[in-house]
Every structure is written in C-alpha cells, then in structure tokens.
Design brief:
By secondary structure, the protein is an alpha+beta fold. The chain is built from two helices and four strands. It is elongated, with a radius of gyration of 17 Å.
Length: 104
C-alpha cells in the first residue's frame, strides 16, 4: 500500500476514488514515563518516553487506517493528515485520515 501526503501519487494515475479512511488510538501516559519526564524538565532534553509513545501511536493509527483502506480495495492512500486531541488529563487521541484510492 502506497501512502502519501500529496493529493496524488506521482507517476501514477488515480483510477478509482474509494473515500475517506481513518485510524485512531487513544494513549495514556504511564508513571514511569512521567517520572523520567519530570526529571528531564529539570535538566532539559528530549522526553524519549513520550517520543516513543507518540511513535507507537502513529504506527498503530496508520495500521488501522491501512486495514480500512484494504477492505475497500485500495492500493494507495493519498492526502494523509495526522491530528491529536487531549481527551482527559494524561490521555490523548492520535488520529490519522486520508483518501483511499486505486492507482494504476
């Protein structure tokens, strides 16, 4: 499956538009990551625990979107976008969406 943030896949013709596909996941912080983040806030630097958490969330949401597109018969997803939202203190949703298409 080809994934792109562009409106089309360069070098390919879109032969069928299948519609919107999406995937999401809700993740909560854990105590271990919070403790490490608190220490990093004092000395500065990357919050690696949170970076890993967001990477895992992006991968999971993208996989769910791809599964939805596959069920529709798509071989590509174009115009992909990511969004996040805070649901409660300590929990956030990562949401990904795009347009499922068939390309030649």
């Amino acid at each position: 499956m080809l994934l792109t943030t562009l409106e089309s896949v360069p070098g390919h013709k879109t032969v069928k538009h299948l519609g919107l596909v999406q995937g999401s996941t809700v993740r909560a912080k854990n105590v271990g990551r919070d403790i490490a983040a608190g220490l990093k806030n004092i000395v500065g630097g990357e919050l690696k625990g949170y970076t890993e958490l967001l990477q895992e969330a992006r991968q999971e949401a993208t996989q769910r979107m791809m599964q939805e597109a596959s069920k529709m018969g798509a071989n590509a997803i174009v115009n992909i976008r990511f969004a996040t939202s805070s649901l409660t203190q300590g929990a956030a949703e990562l949401f990904v969406y795009g347009t499922a298409v068939q390309i030649d």
